[in-house]
Amino acid sequence: MKRISFLIVNFSFLVLLTGCGLYKNYERPADISTQGIYGDNQTGDSLGLGDLSWRQVFTDPQLQHLIETTLAQNANMRQADLRIQEAQNNLRAAKLAFLPSVALSPQGTISGMWDPSNRAEYKGIMGNGATKTYAIPVAAQWQADCFGQLRNAKKGSEVAVENMQTVRQAVQTSLIANVASMYYTLCMLDEQLSVARTTSETWKKNLEVTQLLMQAGQSNKAAVASTEANYWAILANLVDIEASIENVEEALCNLMGETPHPISRSSMDSFQVPELCVTGVPVSILSRRPDVRQAELALASAFYATNQARAAFYPALNISANGQYTNSLGSMVVNPGGIIAALVGSLTQPLFAQGKLRAAHRNAQAEMEVAKIGFQQKVLDAGLEVCRAMDAINDAREKEELIANQVRSLSDAVEATEALMKHSNQVNYLNVLTAQSSLLNAQLSEISNKFDVISNTIDLYQALGGGAE
Questions:
Q1: For residue 269, what is the DSSP state?
Q2: Where do the DSSP E strands lie in 192-331?
Q3: What is the pTM of this model?
Q4: Which of 38, 39, 270, 282 could form a disulfide with 60 if both were Cys (CB 3.0 to 4.6 A apart)?
């Protein structure tokens, strides 16, 4: 007898020893590499652009109002909040699974035989009325979480809640970036429209001058027609710019959950590129970027699912208790009633399940490896996006001074060409028109490059997972 008890104790100890891994929490695998994911832009700064609040990056009061309105009214944002509530409800249920389940199901029965003729000789057989029985049963059932089945289910629900919060952050980050991009697109279009209108007035005067020169015999029909064609092209471009402004305003209103209306705005000069325009340490992107965080949460979820699959190999201990107050005790009906109670404990150890448990465990391990590979690749993809955004910002900044010099040079060229035409015969009016066209293109390029700096900074902010509260 002592030998049997010793074997049982040793077996129990062995089971507990092998099952202790089921209670481990998820930890990021050590072989997930983040070294050099930003390429030449790697930095050791402890604070990066992604760590700033969106209000610190987008300081324009009108833009801030648009972002706040969008975050409050956007349909995707509101749906994300409701999804979080659903995940939290499931988590509460998973936490309560550790407690016993209790059910109350009162019952009552009325039965009997009646003689419609009320004959005395049959009263002993049929009885004089109904027999009333009742029972008030209470049933309770509790599963002892000996090998972490319930714990890993709860951990999986916690991961699901965090995943939905990450989805919300992804929606928020995307909305902030889109609103800011649309806002400064409108500012860019405003500047392009202003330049185009000024140019149209200039070319209207050019056309009038060219027509007068032709009447004076100093120009020809070809020059007039060429000038006129350029003038009509500029007017057509004005229409295109105005249509683009209207389309962007409508898209921005739709994003805010409002009907189309004009958008109040300032100018591109209201955007100040943050001095802290650096990538930050590698872990920053892992903790901030929603898609990278989602990939890691998928790995964590697979980890707990694998633990659940492992736990299925171990015994399941269930304890159930039943009790009822009833007046129906077997074949007897007594009043008042009595109490019947029962307590049952069961231990179920899987022995042979046709390979289903082993297959489920292997599949869970494979899914965890798939999630791990996806996580590593997502880190690499995120690093590539950051590199490209940083390179684009640097390129646009290098071009700023070059384009500014080009605009100054072309402005001088226009003035010099006009002066030469007035005081000498070295140039004709076609040379003036050519110089003005070159200046217009350079001015538009300057506006476009200024917008590129803003747009690429917004892209970098989003690539670093910025926008979180």
A1: G
A2: 316-329
A3: 0.69
A4: 270
